[in-house]
Amino acid sequence: MDGMEMSEDVLTEILAKLPCKSLARFQCVSPSWDRIISSDYLRRRLPLITSGVLFHDGPPRGVSGRKQQAYTYACASEDGVAEAADMSRATTHVHHHRRVQRPSPLLRRVLVLPDPVVPRREPDHAPVVCFTGWLPRGASVEVFDSETGAWRDHAAVDFGIDTDAMSATMHYSGGALHVLAYSGHVVRLDLDAMSCRVTALPAPVSCRARAGHCRGRLRFASSDGARLKVWELVKDAGRGEWALRHEVGVKDLVADGGASEAVTFLFMAFHPEREVVYLWAPWKLVAFDMEKMCVEEEWAFGSEKEGAHLIQIWLFPYTRHLANCLA
Amino acid sequence: MAAPESGDGNNGAARMVTLISSDNTRFEVEAAAASLSQTLQLTILDGGGGGGDGIPLPNVDSATLSKVLEYCIKHAPAAANGGAPNATAVDRAELERFDNEFVNIDQSVLYSLIMAAHNLEIEGLQSLVAKKVADMIKGKSPMEIRRTLGFPDPTPEEQAEMNAHMLEYGWAYE
């Protein structure tokens, strides 16, 4: 097709048939390709499920000197099964997106984090939850079951609290989706029964707050950027009882005590079985042992630019145009 | 396929319309087939294109138009059945075989075809050709795409940007 001028409509038509991996690559063909690939229009035309897995299949401990470690991003193939994902390590997160919709300005994204994971070759049962419409205190929900390969519709799920209070921070574990709410609650949505239970949290919910599971118990992490507190739900029935398990400050993280750096960090994930949390401090991912209060492992990323990008990948594993609608 | 005036198009046979390519070749084709084109459909419904009139298509040359019509004629029966709910598996397999064969053509023809399909708004054909082109380019590097499209070589700045992109989206280049 040398030198031919292709109308933008035609080009869009073609791009819509490409897998996301090619699209990500073709962003840099030219500014106009980038614009089309990043456009809302194309995003709506893309196939239903785009899912990605960001995981770390780190080298054995002690391998140092390499600035950039092996982080792998795997795209789901068309039938929704992640390809080539060796989930042998703990920092595994799966993000699923169904055709991205924006039904509410607040709960804009369709995002599920299945268990950060036990050593297994494949992700086990990982449902995709899609909120298709909003009610004042609930939503209509579609759930994709990876075992049966079918979507189930639920017309009206009652959250038990105002929908506007719900945050977009979610965590999936044991057949239930845990959603943090700005009212200071965590809503446990049981995906089988489609019923919700609301539990009060021990600290306010901010954008840095996260829910997760460790040793089968729900945990809540809250940080102000300088100190991180981790609670565990001790009694699950009715009124939740939380026990403060850990508290860690920036100084504990900076091994050399160099407080000169204006360090802040973000909580990323719980280790599912050990008292280890994964934190994102600028330009490095840190595995911090909460019992020994020391950095167990850290993975530095090359430059500032790449470092900044990790956050983006973490939250929005697809390309910029997905990020646009999720951000 | 340049159709001579057959005079009697109307004795119980399907209604015919005449399309005129940019190089003035006349094509006579069943109205049902031409109606796969959203653009032509209204004109045809209004009774246009019949008799000696013909519908001029100034953007489509005869080589491309004959190819487009080949597609339309093949797909018209299924389309008339409203997506062919009662089509047999054999029919569908045959259409699929036809489609695969149909797009197995030179790049430049593909390009003319997708432009024509776009202008004439023939949805199935647009989608078919777009899929073919996508399959052809999906494994290429951005540089190869640029060359294929005849873009000038990147400036040093553009090259630097491309390199940065490659670093940032390493997973997409594996």
Automatic annotation (TrEMBL), chain A:
Pfam families: b-prop_At3g26010-like, F-box. Residues 6-46 form the F-box domain. InterPro entries: At3g26010-like, Beta-prop_At3g26010-like, F-box-like_dom_sf, F-box_dom. PANTHER family: F-BOX PROTEIN INTERACTION DOMAIN PROTEIN-RELATED (PTHR35546), OS01G0876300 PROTEIN (PTHR35546:SF123). This is F-box domain-containing protein. It comes from Eleusine coracana subsp. coracana.
From TrEMBL, chain B:
This is SKP1-like protein. InterPro entries: SKP1, SKP1-like, SKP1-like_dim_sf, SKP1/BTB/POZ_sf, Skp1_comp_dimer, Skp1_comp_POZ. Belongs to the SKP1 family. Residues 16-75 form the SKP1 component POZ domain. Residues 124-163 form the SKP1 component dimerisation domain. It comes from the Eukaryota. It holds the Pfam family Skp1_POZ. Keywords: Ubl conjugation pathway. GO terms for biological process: jasmonic acid mediated signaling pathway; protein ubiquitination; ubiquitin-dependent protein catabolic process. Involved in ubiquitination and subsequent proteasomal degradation of target proteins. Together with CUL1, RBX1 and a F-box protein, it forms a SCF E3 ubiquitin ligase complex. The functional specificity of this complex depends on the type of F-box protein. In the SCF complex, it serves as an adapter that links the F-box protein to CUL1. Part of a SCF (SKP1-cullin-F-box) protein ligase complex. Pathway: Protein modification; protein ubiquitination. The gene is ga14711. The keyword Glycoprotein does not apply.
